[in-house]
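Workshop exercise sheet. Pairs work together: one partner reads the sequence aloud, the other fills in the structure field after running the prediction. Swap roles for the next sheet.
Pair: D.N. / O.F.
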Amino acid sequence: MKNKRPSKDQYYLNIAKEIARRCTCYRTNIGAIIVRDDQIIATGYVGAPRKTKDCFEHGFCLRTRLKIPHGHRYELCRSIHSEMNAIINAARAGVSLLGGNMYIYGELMPKGRIMDATPCFICKKMIINAGLNQVIVSTAKGKTKRHKVSDWIKDWRKKDILDDKHQYGDGVKVYSEKALKEK
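Structure field:
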């Protein structure tokens, strides 16, 4: 009998995938977990702030209605990204993230296609300041990609911080609200 145990990366990404199912976003389902010393210390998914109405309750995505492309104008979104929510949830529990790793799984909605779940520019800044070491993400090709946070810092030191080359939203097709309903 062959051992069918998933690798640690796949194990944690599978858990992040399950967490993503709690998302309240029409555009994406993204789940994040933070692991330190082989223990899950925080989780987060895309969703509106606690005790406020999410997009499902409103019945529409404001950014889609305004034809805002993926990866742009996050301040107009009702939701908080999964990475931010994981960091916030750790803070609420009084848990240090220093030296931990974040795992992120993402799917584009409404069809649930796996996406490159690389953090956005804002989340990357939060991940750096939280003291995380690595970010392991799902990719559209069904594989995983490992980002060293120290590489982001080195890259941003050499170039301007605004020259960030990899983030969520790159190459993502923008759908109109009508096209989303048809899918």
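Discussion prompt: The first helix runs from residue 8 to 20. What would you look at next?
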